[in-house]
Amino acid sequence: MENMGSRVIEPLIVGRVVGEVLDFFTQTIEMNVSYNKKQVCNGHELFPSSVSSKPRVEIHGGDLRSFFTLVMIDPDVPGPSDPFLKEHLHWYVHFFRKEVVSYEFPRPNIGIHRFVFVLFKQKQRHVIDISPNIPSRDKFNTRKFAIEHDLGLPVAAVFFNAQRETAARRR
């Protein structure tokens, strides 16, 4: 199990998700994220047009009494070379209760952006309502969010890359 955890997290280190967005953690829950049956794999590229509707997220592991919080962020806003608006919150879901912040599909403008799904296992069962604290989706901070709501380290994470589609790239 320990080896599986380190193998799973390795692409997150290579993609600088661990380090820039998350602290080192051990994956303990299996999370599958898919868009129209196409599974999200760490570091793979997806076209923005293929991720326009919200993904299906399946969680395996944990018990039936577990409650989870999922955030989807883009740490590369407005562009990877100067991401001064990072992190942009694209989605926030409380499993298995409700969507707290609705899904906003990726629209990368400059360069290749990383879109990161981060899963936390909650210690308490209540829905964490963050809407009053979020005037905009920009400058969200996953680490600070986890600390403020006593979520601890993530239990799973996965990311994909996307860049602006040009007519030539769509063919």
- Shape assignment: globular
State the separation between the terminal residues, measured CA to CA: 42 Å
Strand order of the largest sheet: 6-5-4-7-8
Largest sheet: 5 strands, antiparallel
Number of contiguous helices? 4
Structural class: alpha+beta
Q: Which radius of gyration do the C-alpha atoms yield?
A: 15 Å
Give your account of this protein's structure.
Belongs to the phosphatidylethanolamine-binding protein family. This is Terminal flower 1. The chain has 171 residues and is of the alpha+beta class. The chain is built from 4 helices and 8 strands; from the N terminus they run ααβββββββαβα. It has helices spanning 2-14, 17-20, 142-148, 167-170, and strands at 30-35, 38-39, 56-60, 68-74, 88-95, 98-101, 113-121, 156-162. A 5-stranded antiparallel β-sheet has the order 6-5-4-7-8, with no helix packed on it. It is globular. The mean pLDDT is 88.
